User: Which sequence fits this backbone?
DNA sequence: TTCGGAACGTTGGCCTAACCAACGTTGGCG
DNA sequence: CGCCAACGTTGGTTAGGCCAACGTTCCGAA
């Protein structure tokens, strides 16, 4: 936390990709700090959120849903299973797959992390009015939609 | 370039910190791709931009200006000096320091990279109108300003 | 004037997020 | 049946950022 105001070259300071990078980096620091209390990280939260929303799924499905690589899902699920937030069971209908399901403790943790995330958003967006927050969300969503449709 | 539309959990899809992260990741991919043609990376461009704007500086100064760690500046300056884009000379007025100066070739390369960056911005912001681009820039700038003042 | 702390460049490390290749297993389809 | 695709898993690599330590050099306060 040096906040030594990295006053990058002026040319960069007005470059959207640079601004995005810096803003995302800052958001990431806030998120990390928030998640540290849970001793979990972004990966874990994304998986818990996906499971909360859509119920049990295979690891490959989870990876696709969360934009996480198959191989990274393995490690994250290991962690979550080790803490009892998730159960990994072979899929009887397709023995290639594991079915990952949320436990009660996992559902609780997901709720707590969601609260943490909400608090971080408030912190992150503090300088913006409610309308501006919506506008920012809208613009970013448009950007991502455009770039995710081949 | 899979653009397999990472359709993250809906809860995440509207979370600003997540959107920022995703948008920045995409911008980063575009920037990296653009810089690959120069066989240089973000670090190098930032340094060249700072030197172009403010003239010769010590490595520590450059690091502070660009938000790059001292130790990372060393490696980046090594690269740039090895390609003749930059000259590293001891500061006669303070023998602890090196003065880094742009060569003519370095100034040229900086211009070319600036062009590349501009092209990437257009690509990145394609779905947004000019007014929307300004609005996005404004919002992100406000965010960063707020969070960089202790 | 000396002495202690601060800044400098440098080395060497460590961590996170992301991605990729390969392998053996399993499923499904021609 | 035979082949290809999907699955989970292991074991990498990369870029980016950060930190600790060291010897050198500078400077200000005793």
Assistant:
């Amino acid at each position: 936390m040096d906040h030594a105001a990295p006053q990058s070259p002026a040319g960069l300071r007005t470059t959207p990709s640079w601004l995005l990078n810096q803003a995302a980096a800052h958001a990431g620091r806030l998120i990390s700090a928030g998640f540290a209390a849970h001793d979990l990280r972004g990966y874990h939260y994304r998986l818990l959120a996906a499971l909360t929303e859509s119920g049990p799924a295979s690891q490959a499905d989870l990876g696709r849903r969360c934009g996480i690589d198959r191989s990274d899902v393995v490690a994250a699920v290991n962690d979550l299973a080790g803490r009892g937030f998730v159960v990994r069971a072979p899929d009887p209908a397709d023995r290639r797959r594991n079915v990952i399901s949320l436990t009660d403790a996992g559902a609780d943790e997901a709720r707590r992390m969601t609260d943490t995330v909400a608090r971080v958003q408030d912190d992150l967006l503090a300088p913006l009015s409610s309308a501006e927050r919506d506008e920012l969300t809208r613009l970013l969503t448009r950007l991502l939609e455009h770039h995710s449709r081949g």
About this structure: Helices of chain A lie at 10-13, 16-36, 42-54, 59-66, 70-82, 104-124, 130-148. Residues 25, 58-60, 70-71, 73-74, 94-98 of chain A lie near DNA strand D (CB under 10 Å from a C1'). Chain A is about 65% helix and 10% strand. The first helix of chain A runs from residue 10 to 13.
